[in-house]
Amino acid sequence: MAHENDMDLKATELRLGLPGTSDRDILKSNNKRSSNEMDNSCSTAPKAQVVGWPPVRSYRKNVLQQQQKSSDSDMLGMYVKVSMDGAPYLRKIDIKVFKNYPDLLMAVENLFKCSMGVYSERDGYINGSEYAPTYEDKDGDWMLVGDVPWDMFVISCKRLRIMKGSEAKGLGRP
Amino acid sequence: MAQSFPEDVLEHVFSFLNHDRDRNAVSLVCKSWYDIERLSRRRIFIGNCYAVSPEIVIRRFPDVRAVELKGKPHFADFNLVPEGWGGYVYPWVVSMAGAYPWLEEIKLKRMVVTDENLELISKSFKNFTVLVLLSCEGFTTDGLAYIAANCRNLRELDLGESEVEDLSGHWLSHFPDNCTSLVSLNISCLGSEVSFSALERLVARCPNLKTLRLNRAVPLEKLPNLLCRAPQLVELGTGAYSAEIQSDIFSNLSEAFLGCKQLKGLSGFWDVVPAYLPAMYSVCSQITSLNLSYATAQNPDLVQFVSQCGNLQRLWVLDYIEDVGLEALAAACKDLQELRVFPSDPYDAEGNVTLTEQGLVAVSEGCPKLQSVLYFCRQMSNAALVAIARNRPNMIRFRLCIIEPRAPDYLTLEPLDAGFGAIVENCKELLRLSMSGLLTDRVFEYIGTHAKKLEMLSIAFAGDSDLGLHHVLSGCESLRKLEIRDCPFGDKALLANATKLETMRSLWMSSCSVSFGACKLLGQKMPRLNVEVINERGPPDSGPEDCPVEKLYVYRTIAGPRVDMPGFVWTMDERVSSRFSRATEGHGD
């Protein structure tokens, strides 16, 4: 290699190598050994097992892992109390696990073994609904579940109450 | 030579020199200047605690008031330095307890500190005011109780990102009722809950408190209690930034922030609930430093918040910001100087965020003052690096981590030599560089040729041969710290540039191709270097001489070989050859 001359090794006192070997041999043998090592360390193990790579400080790794764990275990959930008229006990559910109203209502129906029927914008809950789901919002008002977009509901719902049908009718949209 | 000025005049003149480099220069002028300077030096910075001994320091500088020490090499942050390696502050504290009764400040980085050390500190220095422990370990909250209880005039207690054994939060209650001196308190690394009422009272009675970084256990609902007792805060680290969504919590929080007219820095934000970010809108335009790197908020909440901070100078954030967020940042924050983007999921090869080289290019285009970058991403191109280099010739710190080792330019599949070459060629003031991706010896040729101001270089999975290392060691005139891992660099370049190593603070090489024989040779030939071999799998002489060592740490020192080395660290000095020599070898003298 032409650039070996740049290193001008013979001008320095420090050399490593058995007498009789040339620089070229050492250079080649160094590369050979190192490339084997590279292959061994990289080709078999998945990247995540390379120690210290990517270079993220252990402190930071630990914090992110803790946060991921806590989000898995629902510590960030939105638990609201659910009551049903006539039922002796309150329940609590995490409304954040649901993606839409039908999922939420199905879960509530299962929880209380009741049926609430189908939501209609004009008439509220019809068809087999002795009960209707209502909620108390941030302003303290009681609203019919389903009137506002789901995302807004999630943020503003403070508690749920499954009302007996007759009372609920009064909550329908005017 | 006649003395032109009386000593006390010279001492007064020297008192205007605060920077180490100036004081060091002055001390070389003549013997009397050396003496006057050394008697009047009050602040000492020791970048490598093993480069010098406490005795030597105390002998030269008898009246020091502030000491800053660094211990383990930087790669210790990434678990590359085995447990028990060293970096003990103990001998320093013991010596200084006797020699510097008026010591006021101790700042430590990557050192091992015990509760006994903390107790000794708290009882030895009557005027002790500042304790900063960055990335330290070895102590518990019991040690902190000594500091709280005994340091009457404590102004600053900063635990950085230390690993503290958290026995309880009770230590904070040890601050006496008459302690009113606190200016800065950073307990963000602690896990357990401190007594909130004790914290509240402490904050309330310290009128000069400017920096308060809470730990995760301090709930968001209680943050307003602290803020309204410390409206003069300049830097705030929140606790967990989450609570059930309730309008009264939100309004209390907004109102409290509204009162913080001096607030310039924000950090914390663990477990962030995005709905509460707008509570800080009133202070956003004041904020110059924002650390969201533990905040797992995503767009649009994240970018919406950051865009409110038009005067931002420093932003640390997770890659949830994505390219789109960085483009918004580039448009909104024209004063940005420092950007750090950390990976939310470093071990996921694919990544689930759209953060690419585009984001960094956008910021480099839009932010004319950008000079310091730390960027984790999954793809990079030479074109992007060239663009960044041309946009920002004022760059002084550039650290790029492409998550996949040896990843090539994703567009051309070529090495990234040209891109990094452009960085060093255009950014003539570059002080610090970390590289990643596919790199050949060519990039090191560029670095050796152009990076004349470079002081710190970090290399991983790069290069083809010793020539790469040779280019760096022979070309980078200002190099102080070089850290290398998993590169095919070996004996030749190291030995050919042995004298260069005396001009640097330290060299770290792990998983490279440096042989045990070369280490021995280096240690024998260079008595003012400590050449330390770290071999956890067994003594380095258990294999042939040409067997590569696992890890090598070389640093200049006037203190001689270490006396506190664990079993897996061997120092290569003149005595080594008798310990390790074998009948068959014919090297050396």
How does this model look, in words?
The complex is a heterodimer of chains A (174) and B (589). Chain A has 174 residues and is α+β, with helices and mostly antiparallel strands. Chain A has 6 helices and 7 strands, in the order αααββαββββαβα. In chain A, strand 1 and strand 2 form a beta hairpin. The N terminus of chain A is likely disordered. Chain B is α/β, with parallel strands linked by helices. In chain B, the strands form 2 sheets. Chain B has a 21-stranded mixed sheet, with helices on one face. Chains A and B meet through helix 2 and helix 3 of A and helix 18, helix 19 and helix 20 of B.
Compact overview of the structure:
Chain A is α+β, with helices and mostly antiparallel strands and 174 residues long.
Rg of chain A to the nearest angstrom? 34 Å
> How is the biggest beta sheet of chain A arranged?
5 strands, mixed
Give the fraction of residues assigned to helices of chain A: 25-40%
Number of helices of chain B: 21
**Spatial extent as radius of gyration of chain B:** 26 Å
Largest interface: A-B, 49 and 64 residues
SS content category of chain A: alpha+beta
Q: Work out the helix count of chain A.
A: 6
Distance between the termini of chain B: 45 Å
* Major beta sheet summary of chain B: 21 strands, mixed
Structural class of chain B: alpha/beta
Spatial order of the strands in the main sheet of chain A?
A: 2-1-7-5-6
Q: State the helical fraction of chain B.
A: 25-40%
Low-pLDDT parts of chain A are: 1-6, 20-48
Q: How much beta of chain A, percentage-wise? A: 15-25%
- Oligomeric state, counting identical vs distinct chains: heterodimer
Q: What is the mean pLDDT of chain A?
A: 69
Instruction: Label the overall shape of chain A.
Output: elongated
What is the succession of H and E elements of chain A?
HHHEEHEEEEHEH
